[in-house]
Structures are given as C-alpha cells and as structure tokens.
Amino acid sequence: MNCAIIGSTKIAEVHAEQLLKNGVKEITFISRSKKKREQIILRVRKKASKEAFLFHSNINILKKNFFNIICICSNTEVHDNHLKYVSKLKSIIIVEKPIISLIKYKYKYRDFLISIYKKNKKIIVCYPYLFLANSFKKFFNKINKIKKINFEFQTGGTAKFKKICVNLMPHALTFFHIFLKKNFLKKKMKIEDLLVEKNKWKCKFSIDKISINLIFKENFKKKTYLKLKIDNRILIRKTKKIKKLFINYIEDNKTKRKKNINNPMEEFYANFFKNIKNVKYYNENKNITLDIMKKNSFFLNYFS
Predict the structure, then answer these.
(1) Which of 6, 60, 174, 294 could pair covalently with 129 via S-S, beta carbons 3.0-4.6 A apart?
(2) 28 alpha-carbon distance from chain centroid
(3) Longest C-alpha distance within the chain, in Å?
(4) Is the CB of residue 4 less than 8 Å from the CB of residue 71?
(5) What are the strands of the beta sheet with 2-6, ordered from one edge?
C-alpha cells in the first residue's frame, strides 16, 4: 500500500509515522518547497523501518501515479484547492481537520463540501479527539449529572483571532460528541458570552442544562495541553517523552494520580485501517464533518 502526503509540516510528519506503523510501505511527500520535502524525509527516516520507501515530488505526481491513500496536511487555507485537485481520483483521502477554511468559504462551505463528497465517497477527516474523549469519560460514572464544564485547550499553533476558532473548535465538538452523546452536535446551543483576542478565543454557551465554557489559545512558544474542569474536578491531558517515546497521560486533581492513556492519533489510524472498506464508516465521518462545520460556523459568525 502506498500513500502521498500533501504538506511538509509537523502534522504531516505525525501522519506519516502513523501510516508507516499501520503497514504503508511507501510514502511520497508533496510540497512546493524541495528543501522542506527533503527535510521531512530526513526526520521521518529516523523513525521509519528500513523497509519503508520515502520519496518526494511536486503535486503533478498525483495525476501520473496511483496512490491508495492521499493525506492532505497542508495549510487549512488551501485544503479546498487540494480537495478539488484529488477528489476525482480513486484514492482514499484523509484530511487534517478542519476540512476547509470557514473564513474563506463563510456560508458557502456546505455547497462546496457536498460537491466534493459527490466526487469521492471515501473522504475521512482526522478527528483524534473522538478517541481522547473516551479516555476522559472513564473517570466519570454519571455523565448525565454534570452541570458545568470548562474546556481549556492550548496549542503551539500560529492562528490568530477567529482563525483560532476555525482551527480548534473541531477538537472540542468531536470531544463532546463522544463525551456527552445525546446527539450533542444536533442540539441547539445558546451563546451567553464570547470574546475574541489575538491569541485567545473564549465562548460560554449552554446546551440542555449544562453550561460549557470554551477557552482556546494558540501560542507557538507554549506547550500543548488540555485542561478539563467538570464541576469541581480537574483533569489535565499532558505528554512526556521517555527514551524518544511520547507518553500520553491524564493528571487527576482528585486522586493526585497520573493515568497513562492511548495516543489519540494512534487510535484514529487503528480505527481507520480497521474500517478502510466499510462504507458506513465514511458516511458517518461525512455526517460528523457537516455537523461540525455547521456548529463552527454558528460560533464563528455569532456577531455577524
């Protein structure tokens, strides 16, 4: 099985590592910059097995060679261009979230996505927080008794102002889709407060009888973390490096213990390859994606 990855950023490297772990033998990195393509190959090569074949090229290779999987890890602002370029191919397409920019498409996002999905039935958007939510959920016996949630998420990204919401909201929505269930993405949400700053996006809203406070931060100088406060209990998802291996764990303020958890990205790819021939799997991801884009648009255009 072979794969083409569009993009040469850190997230492209993460996808490459997971693809190789799941049996992909050949990866071609696609980028406008030859230097960046060569650099990512050097980084991935250090962790790849000797049997892995790593190549690089420009985007024209997609029309010359067949790839079982095409993974779009480019800047969000050009996801739409790359989707248009590959949507008619017979490859399976994995897209790093969000699928396209809501800043760029505004209210026309749905028309564009429907046209793309008609051309290719096997498009999957990567949502690792669908799996991370289950790790947090194990700490609670009665989810239906929750009254207040603070979801504070900081990344080392470079997005500013509204783009922070575009970039990080899919994580929060997929998390609550699993954590709270009960058709969370379909329900009406009432915004009570919203603040947009250069490096921070905050919103307080209610759904059913639960008050949810979202705090998104992006700062390339800071380390990524997720802090979840549920009523009076605080859980923090962190990572640590031990002998070149990244360990994911949750720190619980109630028990003062640290519990190791699975890597959400590893779980995403394990689930992807398990369902790679399952039509229902692609349809469910499509429906979740359309619901996420609708809700994200709601938050993003609240002041409009």
Answers:
(1) 174
(2) 22
(3) 57
(4) yes
(5) 53-57, 26-30, 2-6, 69-72, 92-96, 123-126
Which residue type, as a one-letter code, is found at position 6? I
Give kind and range of the element (H or E) at residue 257: strand 257-261
| pLDDT tens digits along 146-168 | 999 999 999 988 889 999 999 99
CB 239 within 8 A of CB 250: no
CA–CA gap between residue 109 and residue 6 (Å, rounded):
21
Closest by CA to 214, choosing from 121, 113, 299, 302, is 299
d(CA 79, CA 102): 11
Residue 117 to residue 42: CA distance in whole angstroms: 35
> Which residue is associated with the tokens 């997230």?
11
- pTM for the complete prediction? 0.94
CB atoms within 10 A of CB 295: 21
pLDDT tens sequence across 60-84: 999 999 999 999 999 999 999 999 9
